[in-house]
Amino acid sequence: MKLGICLPHYGRPIEPSRLAQIAARAEEMSLDSIWVTDHIIVPRDVSLIYRSDMLDPLAMLPWLAGVTERIALGTSVIVLPYRSPLPVAKLLASVDVLSGGRLIVGVAVGWVEGEFDALNVPFRERGRRTDEAIELFRTVWTQEYPEIKTANHTLTNVKASPMPLQKPRPPILVGGASEAAMRRAARLGDGWHASGMPPSTFRAGALAVGNLWKEAKREGDPHLSLRIPILIDGVHQAAVDTALLGTRHVLRGPLTNIVRELRQYQTAGCEHVALEVSYSTYPAILETIDIIAEEIRPALEQQRER
Known about the structure:
The protein is of the alpha/beta class and 306 residues long.
């Protein structure tokens, strides 16, 4: 199982030097990935850690490409209906080139209706717009001279540039826990990116995605990944109100409990976990990175070898 962290580019005063320190420590300790997340303009009455001091993920990605050398860069997730898809496709392809082919593209439809209202994007069209964006990504990332017609775009006699470094293209992981999201992952994505759910729910979702993948006559197997908050006893002192966690499942408690739960996700087929460390202080985040590398990862590798 690969292990990464979600970069805390939200919910705290913006300190680029500290963010760079976290990215450098994650790479130094050979974690597998750093992830960024997406909100643009959050309504005042919505209680989210992402509402304040949030740097845009599409600005964070090229910055991360410049301050790191080896670690994978993931989006958990980009809300595709928020933006016009072709400029986003070009930006992401550029990040893949600038990073040396390290991009993982997590996407979803979004859920904060007030944010869609502020952006003048019809909330009820978010599923269709997401499908269209994924189809465009898949086309312009694999066809130098793309030919495609969608509801809002017709591409012919144009050149896509740059092409991603990864071949055939960067992986696309579809987030969401609804049946529609799982069908989208099986039909258009390369896998499923779950969020904040207990192992039993992840297991059921993984089985559902696998069955839908077969129904869609896809080759191979879907990639299965998870984003989940982590709060380790004796390490984390909350820097923000943990009520902002909402109803999400959290890896919480002594390290033995956290490792045991991660093993359950591993057994259920999870290949990659993005650990959300933002509900804590900067020193605790750095300590958590060390614990992931020096204690959690070896424990999971021992379990795999048995």
